[in-house]
Amino acid sequence: xxxxxxxxxxxxxxxxxxxxLLVPELRARGWTTSVADLPSASGDPAAGxxxxxxxxxxxxxxxxxxxxxxxxxxxxVPVAEAAGTAxxxxxxxxHVLEPGEAVVTPLGGPWYEAGTELVEVPQPARxxxxxxxxxxxxxxxxxxxxxxxxxxxxxxxxxAAWQTVPTAxxxxxxxxxxxxxxxxxxxxxxxxxxxxxxxxxxxxRPADLAEVICGVTDELRAQG
Length: 224
Prior knowledge:
two-stranded antiparallel ribbon
């Protein structure tokens, strides 16, 4: 079946390369996929939520027909800022913020030193991000991670597309890096599903993740 467009938006420290194993699984199930690369994860300290949101808007403007946006982790912020025109949203272990909040707001403040411009890749990345990913794939992924701009974590979100666009959340049961507070927020979405494993199911179990994405979007579609 033709499931329409699915725009994939990566999280902090990552790039669109992180979807390489998932995209073939999605296309085999009827999705037309596209990806966005967020400038805040390119090592540019001047790029934040605004710049990331502009990339998401531009990617959406290029797509015709129904569009679902999948946001992983930090991408929940620029997607909420920019994807109000989407038909559906899927939050994959993604931050759910209210208008006026920044990533650091619910956490009570930064976890990095004052004056920091770029947050280095969390270490050990293998344990925190890729715990259940095969060794060769985990090494490949860890080599591609890049510093994330502090601006992306401190710049407030001004709107929340998830408040008006039908939204599903997929949460990972053994996620070592996603704060429990954000998981609790995401679990309040209209449709919620859980996957076993760590923060990166697009690398550890792409076929399973593709099936869950199809399932939650089918349910959102059925709800009208």
